[in-house]
Give the backbone structure.
Amino acid sequence: MRKLFFVLTGALLLCFTLCGGGRFADAAASQYYLGGMTAGFLLSANGVEVIGLKEVISENGVSCPAADAGIRTGDKIVAVDGIHTRTIEDLGAALERGAGKSSEFTLRRGGQTIKADVTPVKDKKGTQYKIGVLIRDELSGIGTVTYIEKGSGRFGSLGHAVCDEERDSLSIADASVYLCSIIGVNRGERGRAGDLKGLFLSDYKIASADKVCETGLYGTFDDGYDCSALPTVEIAPLSAATIGSAVIYSTVDGTVPQAYDVAIAKVDPNNKQNKNFVIKVTDEELLRETGGIVQGMSGSPIVQDGKLIGAVTHVFLNDPTRGYGIGIEKMIGN
């Protein structure tokens, strides 16, 4: 299963409708648990994605019905004969219903909807109808939780849009969030973004996600999650942020967040791409460990003068010690 690392290295990918806002004044009166822990997100691909084509050996020879019908790697099979196919099991059931007859497949390709007539063949064992595809129905990745609202357990993470490589929207029905342990780091270098190597602790579900948009991925932590060890923090608007020293909280080893020194080099409250801060990593320990900002650190909370002001979102590809951040007021209230 592919791992998607939720840090972007170039322009922000605007793949979802804008999250609602305008509730910052009410939210400012609340207190929040400070995040910084790395989490593993498991999301629906919103269809059955074709990740490869293969030949099928049948009684009549070798063929690939999918390729013959024009299906390509990267296509998403979203319906068969008008019936939605959300999972691999849905596609298998559709093939059995068709019993080898030609079926109309509805595909998503690069933002377009395409129809293809596909005639499955029965495999050599005579047990299954196949069309010759390698498929998946889930996407997974790691990112950083920014905050958890006290009382409600509502969390925000990532600080930027979540996209697959086709830039199609993701369904987040029944999306699960797991504790993730960082077991290694590929250091960032000029011209190449580094990344965190995370291990999903699949027996430790911590939250459920229910919303995804331009400013991140949101949901609610499970009632059993113990927040007592997390520091509490108030939030501050972009107007309170200043050029100068700040701290980010990130997890680059294990499961426990650490504080690292950064400098805010620029504050731009009016940026339309949610690049409200330019930050530079100054912490020698973090520079030794990661080279700066790496994939998987998106969502790391930015704290200045004891208040939560934003989250890390992007890394500069030509300088991994620098990156962008989003103002917390654009995340709060989702």
Remarks:
- The chain has two domains: 3-43+141-330, 55-131.
